[in-house]
Design brief:
The protein folds into 2 domains: about 15-40 and about 240-279; about 65-235, f41 fragment of flagellin, N-terminal domain (Up-down Bundle). A hairpin with a 2-residue loop joins strand 1 (about 135) and strand 2 (about 140). The protein is mainly α. It has a two-stranded antiparallel ribbon with strand order 1-2. Helix 2 (about 50-105) runs antiparallel to helix 3 (about 110-135). The protein is built from 6 helices and 4 strands; from the N terminus they run αααββββααα.
């Protein structure tokens, strides 16, 4: 660093050096003030190029995982709607089984058996209605007949596009498949042949599968939430400003600003000392 002896007034080296120092201090002071104002250590790529790139990749991961959490919630909702429908059907099948047992009574006359058959037909029609009305976002979830298209959708439940989960319901749950007789076709003569037991097993099996799937989704949701929190913490260490440290730097630089300003003023006035040589 060059130093002036002070005898040359055409070029004031001391003033230039004080001015340069003041500019550098003011620039650095502005950086730390911005960090305090925004709460971020990195406000532009120039602050820390590699840190900026890493933090953006982390932000992308977090946002993808957050979307995955939302997808998990939607998948749970689909399963919840389906479970509600299956449980309603299971309740109806239990009632039909009860009516079927009641009809196996030698004391029943033709009118009583016809009444039971009529009630079972109504319940079977309700099973078909539940199949048609169990929807999520306007899309039917259940198959009424074997020829129907099964609901089968994929949900991204993680950061990568390969982290997917299939949600589907392939069991046929219409009255014809569950009871062996279509709704409206139950008579006093075929009540005993109804396959309510087998139908109840089919529906109960599907409910069990849904329960297991919901548990799996709950675990995925917990893992994703934990991963998001950990990634956020790692990103914070790179991006966020340490407020206490930044305030210490600002206080130090404010003092240096004052001293460098004073030195600039002194350096500007020092050549006047040589005016006494001309008296």
């Amino acid at each position: 660093m060059a130093f002036s002896t002070g005898g040359r007034i055409n070029t004031n080296i001391s003033a230039q050096q004080a001015y340069s120092a003041l500019n550098e201090i003011s620039r650095e002071h502005g950086v730390h003030q911005l960090r305090l104002a925004t709460g971020k250590r990195i406000n532009s790529a120039s602050d820390d190029p590699s840190g900026y790139v890493i933090s953006k990749k982390m932000e992308g991961r977090m946002r993808a995982m957050s979307a995955g959490v939302d997808n998990v919630g939607d998948a749970q909702s689909v399963y919840g709607v389906a479970e509600g429908g299956y449980q309603s059907i299971a309740d109806i099948l239990v009632t039909i089984k009860e009516k079927q047992a009641r009809a196996a009574n030698g004391a029943m006359g033709a009118n009583e058996l016809d009444a039971i058959a009529s009630e079972i037909n109504s319940l079977a029609s309700e099973i078909d209605d539940i199949n048609a009305q169990t929807k999520f976002n306007g899309v039917g979830l259940f198959k009424k007949l074997a020829a129907d298209t099964a609901y089968s959708k994929t949900f991204q439940v993680g950061e990568a596009t390969t982290e997917i989960l299939n949600v589907g319901f392939s069991a046929t749950s219409g009255a014809l498949d569950l009871l062996g007789v279509a709704a409206g076709a139950v008579t006093s003569a075929n009540i005993a042949t109804l396959t309510a037991d087998a139908g109840l097993n089919t529906v109960s099996t599907e409910i069990g599968k849904i329960g297991a799937a919901i548990n799996r989704l709950s675990i995925k949701e917990t893992n994703l939430t934990t991963a998001i929190t950990n990634t956020e913490a790692a990103k914070s260490r790179i991006m966020d400003a340490d407020v206490a440290k930044e305030q210490i730097q600002v206080s130090k630089l404010q003092i240096l600003q004052q001293t460098s300003t004073a030195q600039l003023a002194q350096a500007n006035s020092s050549p006047q000392n040589f005016l006494s040589l001309f008296r």
